[in-house]
Amino acid sequence: MKTTLMWFRRDLRLRDQPALVAAAKGANVLPVFVFAEHKSGLDSPKDRLVASVAALREQTEGSLVVRFGDPAQILNELAIEVGAVEVHISSDATPNGRAEERLVEEQLSTAGIALVRTGSSYAVQPGRVTKSSGEPYRVFTPFLKAWREFGWNAPFEQPSITWVRGVHSDRLTEPDEQPDEQPAGEEAAIMRWHDFCNGDLAGYSTSRDRPDLNRTSRLSTALNLGEIHPRTLLHDLAEFAEIGSEAAGIAREDIDRYIAELAWREFYADVLWHNPDSAWNDLRPQMRAMRHDEDADALEAWKSGATGFPFVDAGMRQLQAEGWMHNRVRMVAASFLVKDLHIWWPAGAKYFLEKLDDGDLASNSHSWQWVAGTGTDAAPYFRIFNPVAQGIKFDPQGDYVRRWVPELRHLPGAAAHEPWKHLAGLEHGYRQRIVDHGEERLEALERLAELKEANL
DNA sequence: TTTTGAGTTGTTCGA
DNA sequence: GTCGAACAACTCAAA
User: Fold this and answer.
1) Nucleotides of strand B under 7 angstroms from a protein beta carbon
2) What domains are there in chain A, each with its CATH number?
3) Residue range A89-110: average pLDDT?
């Protein structure tokens, strides 16, 4: 029996894992995880990632080899140690992922070791869905249609595997406590998915927008780390649709909505695949002449949840505390940075990516670009979120705001969204608004008008 | 090639 | 308080 290496990256699961199927075909498998960006272990990786790697180690009966350092070198040494000539991976579509793969592939090949790519983090690999002309889509809705018609495989069976044991692993310092909100590992992800299907999927199409209700699937982190694959989710959703939404008690629109959310993830991965520069630069070149402010104090106030706008601050504090933020609040917080503080979106995108456990480069950057109006959506320029109105609309009782901003807990109901209107509103140390939204909205429109002139 | 219809998520103002 | 209109122009996709 030969031996192969399975190099896990953002695919920390054993089920529905085609790369592992390929690795285990007629072979014993040495599972490996490398912390490449944390070579010395000095700057520590995110707790959530570490917890997920620890869960995978448990699933592999302790045989997962964890190392800190340069992947090519480590994989090379390990392959030689166990006599393997194949390293199996699922491909990573991001610019950095692709670069890393090319580098590792090159270095391994000089030692006669092959890097074998099977599958990706997506139901449809980025670059596969195109218009009939072969050009990539730039608008979501037609992409969604084509993507659904393109179709995807059924989930892959989990192979029976003989793990290679006894290879030295670096010590993995596990976080002290597991966060309740985002338990790590494949088993937890599957449980969460089933809970969601039996519960909050019904009504998802509307309740997903309410941060106070907290009725999203909360699977973004699991998807980002590959603890669960979108193919698995799509398969289950198709079954729901087939047995009839009535039998399952789930409306067709709820199922379609969830599918569409998964498709957004795939769409943005596709956009990044075709435009690697769009990770940190405006996708639409005509937006590059936009006038921005560099205001370190304002940026800091935004980061720390001290803008004086309750809905924005609540979101930023949730991000800090949980490594996650509700999508509706992400949009409003992002809009505030871009349209009210006039700061260029990459500053915000970078901070989100740093803090979010689900921080996915493609989704993060392009969602920011959508808000900023620099990306794949010819959004009307006048669509500027009002942070107060958004709060009242999507957190009508103020529950979400009070959960994250203790200084506002004395204010009942929607009053928590406008503390300045109430006599005792700012008594408990909540900050005055750092800007006037009405004025900054006009300023943003003015800058867009300038841009229009400049592009004439 | 030209034409046509449409584009995730909104806000404000005035009747 | 509610409701409809106005807010630009452009790019994209498909016929």
Assistant:
1) 6-12
2) 2-120 (3.40.50.620), 186-274 (1.25.40.80), 285-454 (1.10.579.10)
3) 95
